[in-house]
């Protein structure tokens, strides 16, 4: 701790997520899902400025091996299924910040923002290979299916939220309060090929 009101921290951790099986398919390329492992690193600070302002800020990075994610696969019988699969390596870099201001005993305003840059570092996608005309062979998929450098699907680059609240006692045992909030996020990709 820098002082009673300000704290700086560093966190380094390793985590794992157990592997799994896709029971929907007998195709050995997609049946087994390997264990996911992640090393995460975080540097942050949080504290208070006087009695009315509090803050928190953090920068982090996560390196993930065999990240588990869902992908659409055409099965041998012609059906399409959403299966769990492994991406070779992914990396997430991020910044997060939060500020809360209470100008008096009744009002409180808080604002938070996060920047999340999540990308594939090493992943051969069967969807990407199909889009580029793969004949389905392992060699063709490997040649055409790399999505290294693409953003991970369903993760927005920017998110932000704001909240304004007003609280006032109406008796010794009850309070009346009003809250207004707003959440914003940037667009995100739906698939690993980053075309939609």
Can I get a quick summary?
This protein has 3 helices and 9 strands, in the order ββαβββββααββ. It has 196 residues and is mainly beta.
What does this structure look like?
By secondary structure, the protein is mainly beta. Helices cover 9% and strands 58% of the residues. The chain is built from 3 helices and 9 strands, in the order E-E-H-E-E-E-E-E-H-H-E-E. It has helices spanning 28-31, 126-131, 138-144; strands at residues 6-17, 20-21, 32-33, 36-49, 53-74, 80-101, 107-122, 158-169, 175-185. The strands form 2 sheets. It has a 7-stranded antiparallel beta sheet, with no helix packed on it. Strands 2-3 form a two-stranded antiparallel sheet. The longest helix is centred in the last third of the chain and has 7 residues, at 138-144.
Shape: elongated
| Average pLDDT level | 92
Contiguous low-pLDDT stretches (5 residues minimum) are: none
Query: Helix/strand-derived class?
Result: mainly beta
Distance between the termini: 45 Å
Element order: H for helix, E for strand: EEHEEEEEHHEE
Treating each run of at least 4 consecutive H or I residues as one helix, how many helices? 3
Largest sheet: 7 strands, antiparallel
Number of strands: 9
Side-by-side strand order of the widest sheet: 1-4-5-6-7-8-9
| Proportion of residues in β-strands | over 45%
- Portion of residues in helices? under 10%
Please state the CA-atom Rg, rounded to the nearest Å: 23 Å
